[in-house]
Amino acid sequence: MKTLEDNLGYSFNNKKLLENALAHSSYANEVRGGISSNERLEFLGDSVLSLIVSSYIYENYKKMPEGELTRLRSSLVCEKTLCKFSRALSVGDFLLLGKGERKTGGAERDSILADAFEAILAAVFLDGGIENARKLVMRFVLPELESYDIKADFKDYKTLLQEIIQRNPEESVTYILTDETGPDHNKQFTVEVRLNSNTIGAGTGKSKKEAEEMAAKQALSLMGESV
Known about the structure:
The chain folds into two domains: 2-149, Ribonuclease iii, N-terminal Endonuclease Domain, Chain A, CATH 1.10.1520.10; 157-222, Double Stranded RNA Binding Domain (2-Layer Sandwich), CATH 3.30.160.20. Helix content is 59%, strand content 11%. It is built from twelve helices and three strands; from the N terminus they run αααααααααααβββα. It has helices spanning 2-8, 15-21, 25-31, 39-60, 66-77, 79-88, 99-103, 110-128, 130-146, 150-153, 157-165, 208-222, and strands at 173-181, 188-195, 198-205. The chain is elongated.
């Protein structure tokens, strides 16, 4: 545990909090009564993480609209990012797992590592307060923000188009499937995006969703948006 505390840069007053944060449900079920799982801590950690990240980007990205703030926060608190944080801390080396879970590679499973990071964060919060929790979070979040490019990371053209159209509440966007070709294993879909009844873009793709995204992308481009 001392090695993990060194990795965290935080020494626990109550060591049992850290032990609890590392206890996967598979381990708790095997021990039965000896220790509870980290699921409750994970629940709390999720909220602590969201508060810290939300408050930071709210204060430091003052020109960013709500929709982009939401997408930015999502990228910083998603499973892929959190398991990366856990790996940097070598959390997998310290996880308490049931025998079956350990044999099947649970110590390297993204979902388990991401949940463990949230549980550890909650343990730090309960043991040392919000400022210590903030230090831990921002140590990992700041490098992520330095390399962040909202347009590169999020090719969600439909959402971007919808946000622009919503500035005029009387207008609405619909996506119409206009063509479907090819065999079942290699379908090609064509979709038009319409503003009220006027076609403002069209796109093709291997799925309806992909075709809709391409149609929205063309619409944004024709509207002068940088995509």
